[in-house]
Amino acid sequence: MTGVNFTVWTLGPLLGVMTFLFIFRIVLTWYPQADLNKLPFNLIAWPTEPFLVPLRKLVPPIGGVDITPIIWVGIFSLLREILLGQQGLITMMSHTS
Q1: What are the pLDDT digits (tens) for 5-44?
Q2: Cα–Cα distance for residue pair 33/26, rounded to 1 Å
Q3: Mean per-residue pLDDT over the chain, rounded
Q4: What gap in Å lies between CA 41 and CA 33, rounded to an integer?
Q5: What predicted TM-score, i.e. pTM, was given to this entire model?
Q6: What are the residue ranges spanned by the domains of the chain?
Q7: Integer distance in angstroms from the first to the last C-alpha of the chain?
Q8: Which parts of the chain fold into alpha helices (H)?
Q9: Distance (Å, rounded) from C-alpha 8 to C-alpha 89?
Q10: How many CA atoms lie within 13 A of 84 on its CB side?
Q11: C-alpha distances in Å from residue 79, one per residue of 39, 48, 75
């Protein structure tokens, strides 16, 4: 297995899992009574919160709604497409080697 293939096999699932977690985080914003410090909600909050905190300083809530998880879903989806999509940079590198 080459370094490029290893990168594809690790980066693809990682970006997919993070996108999935942020989608769950979006759903959790609909339930403000959910305690993010207790199971199972902390399994979603723990890996996503470090990404959300700095972005919340840049993007204020719109109409009282925190849109930062939506922005991160877009960022991770875009990264996955740019790097691993059909015409992605890493995908193209793996086909040339």
Answers
A1: 788 889 999 999 999 999 999 999 888 899 999 999 999 9
A2: 14
A3: 90
A4: 11
A5: 0.85
A6: 3-96
A7: 11
A8: 3-29, 42-58, 68-84, 89-96
A9: 11
A10: 18
A11: 30, 16, 6
